[in-house]
Amino acid sequence: MGCPGRKTLSFFLIFVPVYLHGALTQEAGPTRQRKPFFERLRRLEEQFRRFQEVTLTHLQAIASNYNLSYNIDARFQSLAQESQALALAVNQSQAIVQADLGHLKTWVRKTQHRSRKRDSRLLALGHALKERSQQHARERKEQEAQREALSGLALDVQALQDTLAHLTHTVQSQGTRLAALEGWLQVACPGTTAPVWPPAQPEPRSPSSLKLQGSRQALRALPEPQDPPQGFAGQLQVTQEPPVPGNQWAGPPERLGAICNVGPVLVFPNTSTENVVFLNPGFLSGLRALSFCSWVRTTLGHLGTLLSYATQDNDNKLVLHGRDTLAPGSIHFVIGDPAFRELDLQPLLDGQWHHVCVIWTSILGRYWLHVDRRLTATGSRFREGYEIPPGGSLVLGQEQDSLGGGFDVSEAFVGSMAGLAIWDRVLVPGEVSHLATGKELPPGAILTLANATLIGGFVQKVNCTCLELCP
């Protein structure tokens, strides 16, 4: 843009000196030519001034154009910097949005997991409420049956009392007739003496009264009143033979050494990962001591997992872990993975019922293993000062590799469990002995098989009177 201006200025600077030089060379001419010369010079000066003005205007235009171009370059540079800053801001915004999306996805997953946990808890509560309502209905039915049985027994007792009164009246009338016959005999035969009657014997109890007494004794002995047979009162009236002493009803004799009243039995038929039992509500507070006791019978050549407690942070907070790769009869007692102790339960592989108690306390890390009342293992410095946290998932028969899942067939338990209970304290040997001999349950149990609200797969919950009758 500045090139035409520079050429014009150069031409002007060359042209003016040449023109002035020509004018000066003509000063020596005649005087008559000076006037036109001055006029021409004046015109040239005017033209020169105009040329200067035009040149100045042109130069100013050039300068303004130069400033404009410089401003345009500066604006382009500023725009480029702004675009770079804008791109950087966009990238940062995208990174922030991606991070927020990641947090949102994590929150959504956690929310879904919590919702599943709450759904499972609600389902468990629903099952528990349903079982309780069914139990209340059964209890009401039993109470109604007992009331009906008691009313029936009251009617039978009233009938027996009426029969007894009738027999008493009959005996009195017979005595009156006998006295009248004696008087008539003395009048008819004055020379005969009255027969000597044997000494008066205590009046024998009628069959009806004996039956009544037996019924009362049976009513006191029976735990629940039974419905009396139809025609019971009529049979009492026509019965003539006295009852044989000692022939009263009694319950079936219990075999010496039989273990009874252990509650329901859980039967795990195979190694399916669907065979699992959840104990709810789990541990409601942290545990610094623990006693786990149960009757166990297994049908495999190894012990599976008896118990598994997992939390969100650690899936092996408390495990009695067995699998087919361990030594036969061995089980790992885990508290807060990876710490564990290997326990020997070889006697449990004979297919019979055995009583097992595993006890631990955080004081000095002491632990004890009782099998059939005998102390078979003990130790210390095992998770000393540790606390098992609350709020986890407690499972029987499977080992959890994740919270409430991740089961493996090689770690599944196959067999039966009965009388299972958990305490948050250390049981003394006397309490363990009472448990192993079928006596009362020590107080303070925080979980039993009554808390088995979710039973999955092919696991069966069976009620039986004694262990020898259980599957």
Description:
Mean pLDDT is 80; it is low at 193-256. The strands form 2 sheets. Strands 1, 3, 8, 9, 10, 12, 13 and 15 form an 8-stranded antiparallel β-sheet that branches. This protein has a 7-stranded antiparallel β-sheet with strand order 7-6-5-4-11-2-14, covered by helices on one side. The protein has 5 helices and 15 strands. Helix 1 (3-25) runs antiparallel to helix 2 and helix 2 packs parallel to helix 4 (232-238). The two termini are 109 Å apart. It has 471 residues and is α+β, with helices and mostly antiparallel strands. Strand 4 (307-310) and strand 5 (318-321) form a beta hairpin.
Structural class designation: alpha+beta
**What is the number of helices?**
5
Q: Please state the average pLDDT score.
A: 80
Q: Please give the number of β-strands.
A: 15
Distance between the termini: 109 Å
What are the low-pLDDT stretches, counting only 5+ consecutive residues below 50? Answer: 193-256
Task: Report the sheet with the most strands, covering strand number, pairing sense and barrel closure.
Answer: 8 strands, antiparallel
**Could you say which overall geometry the principal axes of the C-alpha atoms support?**
elongated
What Rg do the Cα atoms give? 57 Å
Beta strand % = 15-25%
The amount of helix comes to 40-55%
Spell the H/E element sequence: HHHHEEEEEEEEEEEEHEEE
